[in-house]
Structures are given as structure tokens and as C-alpha cells.
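Example 3.
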Amino acid sequence: MLVIAFLSFALLMVMMMMAPMGEAKKAAVAVPALRVGEAPA
Amino acid sequence: MEISTGDTGWVLMSAALVMLMTPALGFFYGGLVQRKNVLSTIMHSFFILALISVQWVLWGYTLAFGPSQGGIIGGLDWIGLNGVTMEAGPYAATIPHLAFMVFQMMFAIITPALITGAFAERKRFKAFVVFTLLWATFVYAPVAHWVWAIDGWLRSYGALDFAGGTVVHITSGVSALVAARMLGRRIGFGKEPLEPHNLTYTVLGAGLLWFGWFGFNAGSALSANGLAANAFVVTNTAAAMGALTWMTVSWLRHGQPSVLGAAAGAVAGLVGITPAAGFVDPQAAILIGLGAGTFCFFAVDLLKKVIKVDDALDVFAVHGVGGIWGAIATGLFARESVGGFNGLFYGNPEQLVKQVVAVGVVVVYAAVVSLVILKVIDLVIGLRVAEQEEVLGLDTTTHGELAYQL
């Protein structure tokens, strides 16, 4: 049981590291054209 | 000794109070960042709550509190919580070992969450995940063992830390400073205002932190007794003095009674009293809160304006400086009638020396190991997001979500 528990956690960590950084979602979200120092809408 | 229902109830309730501090910290920090980074900042705290909960069960607890290997680190006897049962353990005779374990888990969770304030608004999420896991394993667990574990070398040496001045606040504060240096300043730092976007969140977070801190400090008595009552009272007193002091100093300096100053001052007072809560009386708590509010306020100015380190949310100034002050203050104000030890002002200068040694060792260890971890992550993953992502904000570019649809 201990080994399975460790492997489950390790697998999650590996999957997290291999996951893309949300490239697909970036385009889907309306990004406000905010720049540093610019007043929010 | 039999398991006490009163003690068990108090420690489990305290664990729940300390648990609440981590999302509260998310709100405290979330209000301080720009609106484009509020979700990513809150996510740091919330994610750590999940990540370290599992790490602590699997290997964190046994490394920190397991049977000592030469006073340096715990053995693997309790890996996966094997042998950690409903019966009393070696750390508290009247509560289940599992209750002690879960109370300590909440400390292990909030400590790396404190560091996230230093790298807010610019750290890569994957780098943050790996850093948190490595830091909890190689910095938090060993230092917790030295200070709190049976036969831990700093505990055997006689250094006092009731609820985490060295283990929680100095480690996180110093590591935050190292992280801020390694990551570099945010785009626009010193040139454009990087103002807090919602101080109502920050005050809400500070209020919940204050509330949760009763579990943090009074729960550390591990029993529903007079020592817990003392810790509760000195905690509230120091928080109040910290808030009054920071706000007043800030008012004198900047001409207005700052809301943020009151909130930050309360947290500084809470940090200062943490190592001392089981060793000092309420009168000393007033002085500890006064010192925390003063030293931490000037540390913020020094770091931002003189040294120009972009510790975004002042983690070192509040937790590092406040933790160092609290540890030293324990050596000054400790009183035998409270916790069994006297400090300098009650005729025992040796205690002050022990506190200074503990502070020095923990500062150096946390700084060096954090630096190594960050260097390795920088080489393998990269610490900082791309410039474009930083400009657009991490809420959209990292998480694909917006905090406000306004």
C-alpha cells in the first residue's frame, strides 16, 4: 500500500511537470490589454 | 497517562485554526498584488495546502519528527504514517499521535506558503511546485527536527522556540529574501507604482491570520491548560501592539494612518510573539509587539529603498526580521514562572546566547539550501516567466482565468 501511495503521488508530480502551460486556454480567455502601470478598466 | 478528550479537542481545533491561516494568507497576499496576478497569488497558498498535506503524510512527518538520527533528521520509521496511531505518541501524552501529526502538518503547510510573497507576480508555476516540494523536504523538515524533535540538536542544546519563530518564520523569511534576489525585480519595480489592488482582501486575510494564530500559538501547548491560556493572551497582546506601533510609525513618517500599516503590524506582532508565546508573560508581549512593529516597519523601508531587493510582499521584513526579533526576545523576556526558563532580564544571560546561536544557524542553513534549490531549478526548469507573460499577468497567461469579470 505504501509503495502504491508513493507511486500515485510521484505519477501526479511527473504529469504536472509534463503538462503544457495552458497555451490553448490562453487564446480562449479575453486578455485585458493591461500593461504595468496602466489604470485598470 | 490516558488520552484526554479536552486536550484532543483543543489540539484538533487548533489544527483547523492553523489550516485556515493558509487560505487567509492567500487573501492577505492576494490583495497586495496587482489585479492581473491575484488568482495566481491565492493559488500559491491553496495549492501548497494540498501539496504539503500529501508530502507530510508520505515522508515529511517522519523526517521532521521521526526517531532522531544523530539530532539532524528523523528516521524513516513513520514513513507513510506507519506506526502513527490513535494512541498517544512520544510528543504529547494526552492526545493521539495522529492529532499531534496533523497539527504539525498545518505548520509545514503554511511555512512554504509564506515564501510565495517574495516571488509573487513573476515565478513560473512549475518552478514553484518543485521548489515547494524540495524546500519542505530539505529546509523545513531538518530545521523542525533540530528545534522540536526529541533529541533534535538545537532542542538538546537548549534553544527555545514555542511555536515556530525559527522553524517557521526565520526559515521562510530568509528563503524569501534569497528567492527575491534570485528572481530579480518585477518589471517596473522602482519606476512605476506596483500598488496593492485590493486592501480589503489584505485586511480580511490579516484578520483571519490573527484568528488562526490562536491555534498556532495556544495550540502549541498541546493541552487545554494554563500554558495555552497564557499563549493565547500574549498572542493577542503582541498582535495588538504590533498593529498600533506600525500604524503609528507609518503615520508619523507618511502623514496618514495606513490601513495596510495596521494589518501588516498585526502580522509582525504575531510573528514576534510566536517563539515566545509559551515562555513570556503579557507585559513582555507588549514590548515584543512594540519591537516587532518598529523593526519590521523599518526593515521594509530598508529593503525596498536602500537595498532595492524586490521582496514583493515584504516576507523577509515581516517574517525574517520579526522571527529573529521574537527568537532573541525569548532570550530576553523568558520567565520561569511561565514556561520553566528564565531569560536575560530574569538573570539567565546564557539563554540569550542560545537563542542567538539558533538564529544564526537557521539563517545560514535556510539561505544556503534555498540558494542551491533555486539554482538547480533555474538550470532545469527556469524560475521566471517570460517578460510578455509578466506584463499580461499570470492569472491569464498561467492559469487561463480572470479574477474579475468587470
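Chain B has one domain: 5-397. Chain B has a mean pLDDT of 97.
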